[in-house]
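INPUT
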Amino acid sequence: MNTAKATGGASEGAVRPLSGFHSLTAPDYDLDSTLSCGQAFRWHWIAESQAWIGVVGEQCVRLQTRLDRIEVESAPAAEDWAWLRRYLQTDLHIDSVLRSFPDDAPMRAAVSACRGLRLLRQDPWECLASFILSSTKQIVQIRRIIALLCERYGKSITVPAGWMPAHTFPSAARLAEVSETDLRQCKMGFRAKYLRGSALRVAKGDCELTGLGELPTDLARVELMRLPGVGRKVADCVLLFAYGRLEAFPMDVWMIRGLGQLYFPRRQVSLDRLRRFADTHFGPQGGFAQQYLFHYLRMEAKVPKL
DNA sequence: TACCAGGAGAGCG
DNA sequence: CGCTCTCATGGT
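OUTPUT
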């Protein structure tokens, strides 16, 4: 199971980095859509090896799709792999989710564009910080900001030879001790004040991210929105991508335009009305439908793949 | 050049 | 409450 092997070149007396291999059962799983759809910002597509490389917690992970499985190499080697199955949500059967979607033309088009897309289960702090940094930024820029942040303030991960240098996502406590000026050097602009403010409060225990998992969605949303830089949309992203609250339906510019275009082609609909439409129309797993629509809209717009 | 980007918050009437 | 403006920075 945890077949660890030494990788890396025959270099001078340095300790050889160990990586572990594993294989996950993942039927009807669209890894490409899942990792490129804009819910997580740290995955890189390596064309030469046809693989995705990213960081999950303290592990640097390389993923490849083979038939109905996902082949994994992880550094350092892992004892068990429950953390990765949880992150990728490979045990979730997508059929019942897809069946819960409304049977209309836009939804059918979205599902056929990325059938097998999963919602990840991300670390709450990383997800929260990432979406604080996302406001009025294009996804390519968000990725760049987060890469700089991790490079400068995350912990270095020892990886096999030939892999890109990898870093963990910096903790709230770590970022709380970074000045706003230094944060701005990561190209995040006015978001630096928000990120620092939220890091301070999370590090102080003023907002218990772990405890939010115990609260009903409405109360958890209220708590998240008490943090600086966290409004309704960012809170919903965190609820959906980190806490698995499938009823959360993030309303961003893509969805406002897309829902208007797809469902109300010839009249102007207010944001509040659009939100109520989404709540009733897409059902208790509306967040899943939202991500399918979001990815579908971005693909239609020919947004460059990562 | 002008406009926009997975928004939020403050300042208005 | 609902509207408008600003906030950095980079891409098209």
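end of record. Confidence is low (pLDDT under 50) at residues 1-13 of chain A.
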